[in-house]
Amino acid sequence: MSAAASVRELVKRYPKAPVNAVDGISFAVAPGEVFGLLGPNGAGKTTTVGILTTRVRPTSGTAEVDGLDVLRDPVAARRRLAVVPQRSNLDRSISIRRNLLFHAAYHGVPAAERERRANELLEQFGLLERADSKPDFISGGQSQRIMIARALMHEPAVLFLDEPSTGLDPAARLFVWDRLRELKERGVTLVLTTHDMHEAAALAERVAIIDHGRLLAIDTPQALIRSLPGKATLELATRIPPDRSADDLLTATRTISGVDAVESVQGQPDGDGNGAAGEARVRLYVSGDAALLVGPAATRLAEDGMTITDVALGSPSLEDVFIHLTGRALR
Amino acid sequence: MTAYAEPVRAQTQTGAFVAVLRRDLYVTGKELPVFLAQVILQPFFLLFVFGKVLGSLGYTQHGYSNLLFPGLLALTAVITGMQTLAFPLVLEFGWTKEIEDRLLAPMRTGLVAAEKMVFASLRALIAATLMIPIGILVLGSIPWRWSGVPLLIVMMILASVLGAGLGLVLGTLVTPNRINVVFSLVFTPLLFTGCSQYPWPSLSSLPWFQVITACNPMTYASEGMRAALVPGVPHIQPWISVVVLAGSIVVLSLVGIRGFYRRAID
After folding, report:
1. How many other β-carbons are positioned within 10 Å of the β-carbon of residue B204?
2. What's the mean pLDDT in A199-215?
3. Which chain B residues contact residue A58 at CB under 8 A?
4. Is A156 at the interface with chain B, CB within 8 A?
5. Whole-angstrom Cα distance, residue A213 to residue A12?
6. Of the candidates A225, A249, A268, which is a domain's last residue?
7. Cβ separation A155–B3 shorter than 8 A
8. Shared-domain flag, residues A169 and A45
9. Residue A326 lies in a domain
10. Which of B3, B16, B99 shows the shortest C-beta gap to A108?
11. Are A114 and A155 members of one domain?
């Protein structure tokens, strides 16, 4: 059976850009699979999806959707795919219902069938009440729902979603996730791009981790997490005296018994990375109970004059996989 | 809703084209009063002030309104075609992204641009046609020659498509943050160098301006309309006007569709 979507040796360099936005990516999405492209903003996810959805021309390489070469036959490929962008691109001149109806008309769905599907989808996505008003002044969650319903009007084989729940409140997010899971049950192939590891872990059966236009790893979230050195993590923020460096911190923590691997963590959301006033963060991968290592770690670091200022315990997540692969946090 | 994996029924690109055109016509139909006000107001006031008021006050010669009216038909067609296409296109590409759903419709990207031109031409044609009863209302009578009607129709169509072509080129060239500057830099000169308010041959006393106006394709639309309705006024030979307009349309369409591809596909 051919892949629902695949790219081979895909390269995209934008004019005047110093580096390739996509730099030799290959993967194949199986029919019915929920596939996640995980990476920070600017990693090349959106460009990859842009190529698959006929909106970006690759510099080299091939891309196929449902067995159709998107470069050679973009018109046929468009019949088989649908796109839900991150930002609303709804037609503001016509009602929500007509957004759905006209989309289906563009795709050649007969009139009676259009009406039937629109009613069904409007109900399923909780949009019936507002169906006949224009999509002005609606919340992000609502426009996301309308765009997914619209995308389904021509019954695509593959649905591409760009950051499907970014910026939504928790309830709207869960609603969208539930609808996407229902689609999966029906056998629709979903390809989502996200920089949100929760979203990737909650929805995707397989995840491709992308950074700087390159594919770093591709597997199920469980397998990716299992590939990490330890079973639990212990993150330490440490104050380092002037005569010591962050490398000394790594060396010191590596000698603590029960620690499988150590890596420094940069680019924390609070902006408190390395170097700031003698602070450094380190992540320990441990096989036993991470909490039991806080004491020994404090003792060991004190020998070198370093003090722990913050402790975080965790079981590894996709975020840790990303940090492990790139040495940087996702956001 | 169980048939997602089933192949979508075969459908021609023409079907998609027609559906997109129907969407535009539907929106126009719903916003008819706005559409009418938008297209009629400017030529109405031009006609009223230059044709009626100045004439009644004795500032313009008798018969000026006969000369002005065909020019305003050309102006209305060109400006309406241009506005219908350029303004929304700039916003759709640069800001609302509304065009994306149509770019993902199963038809060649060039057809999406072609649909824009067909729709803008249709609106321009309607606006120009509406100028005829408005002219009768404002001026009391308009210059009319049944034998000139075939040429008039050809000119109305060419002027409408010309406006659409100008709109497509502008709309794909301009980014939203520069829309104001570009439109005032392009629009106003185009409006006043298109010979709608004066016949081109009479400019021989202002040779430099005659050269400038000869470079504006709208000039040939105005002149062609005069050839159809008031052949007594000196005008450019109709066949020259037709050839120049057709040539301009071909060039503008090619440049516009190229620009459209550039904006639609990275």
Report:
1. 9
2. 88
3. none
4. yes
5. 9
6. A225
7. yes
8. yes
9. no
10. B16
11. yes
CB contact under 8 A, B266 and A79: no
* A185 → chain B, closest CA residue: B2
Sort residue A235 into left (φ over 0), alpha (ψ -120 to 50) or beta: beta
Distance of CA A83 to the CA centre of its chain: 15
For testing contact with chain A, the best of B8, B13, B96, B97 (most A CBs within 10 A): B8
Report the distance separating Cα B114 and Cα B261, nearest Å. Answer: 12
In contact, A82 and A152? CB cutoff 8 Å:
yes
Smallest CA–CA distance from A90 into chain B, residue: B98
Residue A65 in any domain: the answer is yes
Are A295 and A184 found together in one domain?
no
Nearest to A186 among B4, B100, B265 (CB): B4
Contact B106/A at CB under 8 A: yes
Residue A267: give its domain's CATH number: 3.30.70.1430
Q: Could you tell me the residue range of the domain that residue A169 belongs to?
A: 5-225
Q: What CATH number is attached to the domain comprising A185?
A: 3.40.50.300
Reported as type and span, the H/E element at residue A312 is strand A307-314
Angle among Cα A62, B100, A213 to the nearest 5 degrees reads: 40
Query: Quick check: A157 and B4 CB within 8 A?
Result: yes
pLDDT at A69 over 50: yes
Give chain B's radius of gyration (CA, Å): 20
* Dist. CA B53–CA A116, nearest whole Å: 58
Q: The tokens of A314 are what?
A: 């965790």
**Strands of the sheet with A232-239, listed across from one edge:** A259-264, A279-286, A232-239, A307-314
Quote the tokens at residue A265: 């963590």
**Minimal CA separation from B83 to chain A, in Å:** 17
> What residues of A are in contact with residue B25 (Cβ under 8 Å)?
none
Q: Cβ of A106 and B19 within 8 Å?
A: yes
* CB of B32 less than 8 A from some CB of A: no
Searching chain A, which residue's CA lies closest to the CA of residue B103? A55
pLDDT tens for chain B, residues 1 to 266: 434 433 444 457 888 999 999 999 999 988 889 888 887 887 788 888 888 888 888 888 878 888 889 999 999 999 999 988 998 898 888 778 889 999 999 999 999 999 999 999 999 999 999 889 988 988 888 888 899 899 999 999 999 999 999 999 999 988 878 888 877 888 888 888 998 888 988 888 999 999 999 999 999 999 999 999 988 888 888 999 999 999 999 999 999 999 999 988 88
B100–A83 CB contact, under 8 Å? yes
Q: Could you give the number of structural domains in chain A?
A: 2
Check CB contact of A92 with chain B, cutoff 8 Å.
Answer: yes
Please indicate, yes or no, if residue A328 is contained in any of the structural domains: no
Q: How far is B42 from chain A (nearest CA, A)?
A: 24
